[in-house]
């Protein structure tokens, strides 16, 4: 088996039985906010031909750094078999069909499927609203006694499942951040830096839990970090290591793997990793010294990358313009029926959200389910977003503002108090199909909390000096795998949620069910 990195989460898996193209991302994503790092716009013609002629396509989920609409429109034959994860909705299939693709291979969550003689796959899904209403997934590929796990940024709860198909040879895994918090939030600089450092620590801890449980012969850091080339966003790159950023590059994680006794594989776009039952070897598309310089001389590398793409960025931004629409009326007619569908979700937000779209102040009144002009009413959450960007996603009726807008980091935010996941669950669920799921999930969560949960009979476990319940109140993560005590706080590293060790109170979101915890 041979796996070639294409940048970010992209890879081309090649076997004698066939090849699988995974998450090809080449066009800048999120309003030009994200670029692949290292750059993948200089791949060889020979590799590009292999990409275009792949036998199968796998897109893990619908975020723009995995589902590259512009590239997919121009590449691949329309009848290429597409390996579809077993998501609870048909949204991904409908989206790919709009690109003209016609051949879909439906898979069932975790079940092995032979897609060509001797070539089997299994796709594991994650479908909670927090991790993306459209779903996220990981791919396991099996051929000739070798197994590759392409986990990308899928945060599966059950760590053992990915290794259930046999001993894993190669584990491709996200280690870096992929969110806008805390960089866009208004807070003191020292607090923002502290929050960024805590976020990076949680990211690494989560990744290491997967590494330990999957137990692969070698780990390949992937699915991040992005590069920020727009001068307005360039400060989000982590170059010296002391920036208020959650985007360390793979050299930091590779050192952590080495310190813990694991084998990591440095990769850049074009790196090919050959896997046999007895060996694993990597070949880079350039001399090793040039590969090392990407990271050791990162500022210079990014500045050259930026200079090459500034004309594209300038042209893209010149195309942003206010549209001839009544934005308030557009959002009101779109969102109020969705708010009406989700009384429980609205109650969990329990406050007003202010969206400043340029000079237009829009109040989303969650308690009353209304969208109206702001007239001085109090609010607990505020987003300041350029009006032309809000109009662009409103006209498209973009169903997931996390993907279409917020990941761009082209906004600022403020909140009165701690994180409230339900604000973002609403903004990720802007269709009737998604809102039905968002409301059903919060209802189920509250019912489980009131009744002790599906895991109420599971015995408590010990983590450090504390006895705690087995499952995290947030998303049922197994705390035996993901639980850690850090600086007097109990942390679930799957999503980074923090609890007071003495009281069990959730420090990440006050509305969350407390953790049952006491000293051993």
Q: Tell me about the largest β-sheet.
A: 8 strands, mixed
Count up the helices. 14
Distance between the termini: 48 Å
Strand-residue proportion: 15-25%
Estimate the global geometry from the Cα principal axes. Answer: globular
Q: CATH top level of the largest domain?
A: Alpha Beta
Q: Structural class of the helices, strands and pairings?
A: alpha+beta
The CATH architecture of the largest domain can be given as: 4-Layer Sandwich
Number of strands: 25
Mean pLDDT: 93
Which sequence of strands runs across the widest sheet? 6-5-4-3-2-1-13-14
Q: What does this 3D model show about the protein?
A:
- This protein is an alpha+beta fold.
- The chain is built from 14 helices and 25 strands.
- It has helices spanning 45-52, 69-74, 91-98, 189-214, 250-259, 288-296, 298-318, 327-341, 343-349, 387-395, 401-404, 421-427, 432-451, 479-482; strands spanning 2-7, 10-15, 18-22, 56-58, 82-84, 104-106, 113-116, 119-126, 136-143, 146-152, 170-174, 218-222, 272-275, 280-283, 352-357, 360-365, 370-373, 381-385, 412-415, 461-463, 466-468, 483-486, 489-492, 497-500, 517-519.
- Helix 9 crosses helix 12.
- The mean pLDDT is 93.
